[in-house]
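Quick illustration, no need to memorize.
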Amino acid sequence: MSNFDTGFHKPSLELSLLHAVLNQVDYGLAVVNTETDQVLFANAPAQSALLPANAGNTGLCASNGLLCTRKASDAKALRLALQRTSSGQRTLLQLHEAHSADAVAVMPLSCPGYALLAFAKQQICDTTTVTLFARERGLTSAEGQVLAQVCKGLRPQQIATHQGVQLSTVRTQLRAIRLKTACGSVRTLIEQLSVLPSLAHQLGAQFSAPMETAVALA
């Protein structure tokens, strides 16, 4: 699924640029017609999240370009969330089978009849951001790998086991990371990383081209 076919004209340069910009963030963003449930736009992370194969994460998916729920019993909750946007209300939609981290924000847009769906980040510190951060701070390849493991919540002993090294080696690397990043503790380091710009993973070919169909909400 490369794009949702809406039947609208080919996008202008501005819409193509907007599409390219939104594909660079780690948050899934989708625009939905609140009356017809038609998905008019979805950036790459949102398209991935709405694939039927991934519906178990949020309970939402797209079928024939229409937003729907994996379980029929959740359809009422989705319909209510979309209807609330008409009166300017926001909803944090968490269907019964999804974890709290998989909640989806349903928000009104300035254009009546349309709602914005914002999907959760896939991880606190995305891989792309961590890699760039490590490079800019002068971390070695090994230190960068340790940092990535820390961001996943692994303890030093777990990292040592994962990396196949001694615990003392990991502790030495952590000290070096704290010195190079000017962070007094691992907690401070994670806090610093968590507020950095969230970058999407390298886009695959199916998401690299501009959308062939789009609607201008202006």
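The chain is about 40% helix and 15% strand.
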